Amino acid sequence: MASRKKGRPRKYRNADQLQEKIAEYFHSCSERGKIPTKAGLCYYLGFADPAALSYYADRCKARNHFSKAIRKALVKIEAWKAQALVDGELEPGRLRGLCFDLRCNHGWREKTAVKTEEPDVGGSGVAVIGWHRWENYCRRRLAQSSPASDSS
Fold first, then answer.
1. C-alpha dihedral (55, 58, 62, 64), degrees to nearest 10
2. Structure confidence at residue 22 (pLDDT)
3. Which of 12, 23, 62, 115 makes the best surface tag, with the fewest CB within 10 Å?
4. What is the DSSP letter of 119?
5. Which InterPro entries does the UniProt entry name for this protein (predicted)?
6. Which string of DSSP letters, residue by residue, matches 46-85?
7. Residue 49, Cβ neighbours under 10 Å: how many?
8. CB within 8 A of 69, min separation 6: which ones?
9. Contacts (Cβ under 8 Å, ≥6 apart) of 46
C-alpha cells in the first residue's frame, strides 16, 4: 500500500522559479519607487500567510534550495530599509514605521547607553541627577528660613 501525501502541494517546484518571482518583485518595487517589505514579498509570491515564507525557508523538504533564495531576499529587504534610514530623506511618520518594521521583522534592537557620573557628595557614593539644582534649592530655602533674615 502506497503512502498518500498529505497537505497542499508546494507552490514553487524549484528554487529557480522562486528566485525569478523574487527578482520580479524587487524590479516592480524599484519601478514604483516603493520600499520592499516582507509582507509585500509574501503577497507577490502568492502566499496568504507570512508563515508560508518561513515554511519554504526552514521546514520544507527541499529547504536547501529554497532557503538561500528566501534568505537573500529578506537580507536585500533589510539592506534596502537600512539604506533608507541612512539616507534620512523620509518623513517622520515613515521613519518611525521603518524603524518599527526593522525591529519587528529583522531583529534590530535599540541600544541605549546611560553614562552616570557620581558627584563627590560627602563620600556617599549616591549620584543624583541635577545635584547642583538641588543644592541651589536647598541654599535658597535655608536663606529664606534663616533667623538672621527675620531680625530685620
1. 150
2. 93
3. 115
4. -
5. GP3_package (IPR032066)
6. T-SSHHHHHIIIII-TTHHHHHHHHHHHHHHHHHHHHHHH
7. 9
8. 15, 18, 19, 22
9. 11
7: left (phi over 0), alpha (psi -120 to 50) or beta: left
Q: Which long-range contacts (CB under 8 A, 24 or more apart) does 53-60 make?
A: 56/10, 56/12, 56/18, 60/10
Domain spans in the chain, listed from the N-terminal domain onward:
15-106, 113-144
How do the pLDDT tens digits run along the chain, 152 residues long?
556 667 677 777 788 888 999 999 999 999 998 888 888 999 999 988 888 887 777 766 555 678 888 888 989 988 888 888 888 777 777 788 888 888 888 888 877 766 666 555 555 555 555 667 777 777 877 887 766 545 44
Query: Do 53 and 12 contact (CB within 8 A), yes or no?
Result: no
The one-letter amino acid code at 26 reads F
Contact 66, 57 (CB under 8 A): yes
